[in-house]
C-alpha cells in the first residue's frame, strides 16, 4: 500500500541491523541473507534483553502473589497488555487477550464465540487465500455443528472478488473470518470494506492480522472489526505468544475456551464462577516473558515509525519485483494492486525445494513449499512456490544476492 508523501522518514538500515545479532553470521561460507520473515522474524537485542532481564531479576508467577518479585512480574505483564492495546488503537486493555499464537486466537473465537451460536444450516464465510489456521478451525466447527463453510473466490491476480463476497453474505452467515495480508501472496485485502459490508448485514468479522501488523499501521477501532489476531514472532517478538483483540461486548458474552487457574473467581465442587475477560480466556500460567518481549518489540517498531517501515519495505518490494522478473523462466504468482511483505514465484521446470536448497548454499534463506495455504496453491495449479519475504532490516543488496542466487539456479539446471 502506498505511503502519503511526507509521512515517513528513511530508515537507517545499518543502524537497525546492528540491533539484530542473528543477522551477523555466515551460512555456508556466505553472509546470511534472511528473506524468510513471513515465517518468523529475527529479534532485536532490546527484546532479547527484556526476556533475559525478566529471568534474571523478576522471575515469578503473576497475579495474587504478595511478594516483591510477583508484584513486579504482574506489573510488567499487565503493562505489556496496555502497550499492545495502545499499539492496536483499542479502547480498553481488557480487550487484549494473550494467546499462544494467531492460530489459538482463531480457535478461541471459533469455539467460544461462534460455536454456541452456530446451528445446522448456518454458514461461516472465509476466503480462498486463507492460511490453514483460518480454515481448519472453521471446518472442524462446521462439521461438528452441521453448518456450511463458504469460500469467497479470488482472481488470478490474487485479489478477492468483493462482488461475490457481498452476494455470499446471507441471513445464515454467523461470522466472516478473513486474512488481512496473505502469507503466501502478499496481497493486502480491503478489510475495511469487507468489515463494512459484513456489518451492514449484521455479521461480525474476525481478521487474521499475522502478516499485517509487522508491515502497516493497524487501528482496530478505525477498522471496527469484532476480533483481530496476530503473533508475536512475526513482529520481532518472542515465539509462543499471540494476541486476540476482541470488542469488549463480544468478549463478555463468550464462555471460557479452557479451564484451570487464573480464569476463575471462585471454585467449589458444586460450581465455578469465571473471571471477566481477558483473564477468563487465559487459563494457567501465561507466557510472562513472551508478553514482556512482545511489548518491547512493539516499542521498537514505534520508535522506528511504522510509516517509515512501510515505505522502506515497499521500496524493497518494488526493486525485487523488477529484479526477479529479469531472471529467465521466473514467474511471479499473483499481481495484486496492493502487496506487502512477500513475493511468491516459481521457475520453469525447477521445483521450489531445489531452488530453496541452492539459494541456501549461497547463504540466502527463503521459504519453499505450500506455506500452509494449499488452497492458494490449488487455485494456481501449483504444488509449491518460493517465497521471499522482507522485514525492516533487509537491504537492496540482499535482494540482489537473491537474484544472483536465482541465476545460479538457472545455471545448475540449464
Explain briefly what this protein structure is.
With 414 residues, this protein is an alpha/beta fold. It has two domains: 13-37 and 305-413, Aspartate Aminotransferase, domain 1 (Alpha-Beta Complex), CATH 3.90.1150; 47-302, 3-Layer(aba) Sandwich (Aspartate Aminotransferase, domain 2).
Q: How would you summarize the topology of this molecule?
A:
Blueprint: H1 13-17, E1 26-27, E2 30-31, E3 33-34, H2 45-58, H3 68-88, E4 96-99, H4 102-114, E5 123-127, H5 136-145, E6 148-152, H6 162-168, E7 173-179, H7 191-200, E8 205-208, H8 220-223, E9 227-231, E10 242-246, H9 248-252, E11 264-267, E12 272-274, H10 288-304, H11 306-324, E13 330-332, E14 342-347, H12 352-361, E15 364-365, E16 367-369, H13 374-379, E17 385-389, H14 396-413
Parallel strand pairs: 3-15, 5-6, 5-7, 7-8, 8-9
Antiparallel strand pairs: 1-2, 4-10, 9-10, 11-12, 13-14, 14-17, 16-17
Helix pairs in contact: 2-10, 3-10, 11-14, 12-14
Could you explain the architecture of this structure?
This protein is of the alpha/beta class and 414 residues long. The chain has 2 domains: 13-37 and 305-413, Aspartate Aminotransferase, domain 1; 47-302, Aspartate Aminotransferase, domain 2 (3-Layer(aba) Sandwich). It is 38% helix and 16% strand. The chain contains 14 helices and 17 strands. The strands form 5 sheets. The protein has a 7-stranded mixed beta sheet with strand order 4-10-9-8-7-5-6, sandwiched between helices. Strands 13-14-17-16 form a 4-stranded antiparallel beta sheet, covered by helices on one side. Helix 7 links the parallel strand 7 and strand 8. The longest helix has 21 residues, at 68-88. The radius of gyration is 22 Å and the shape is globular.
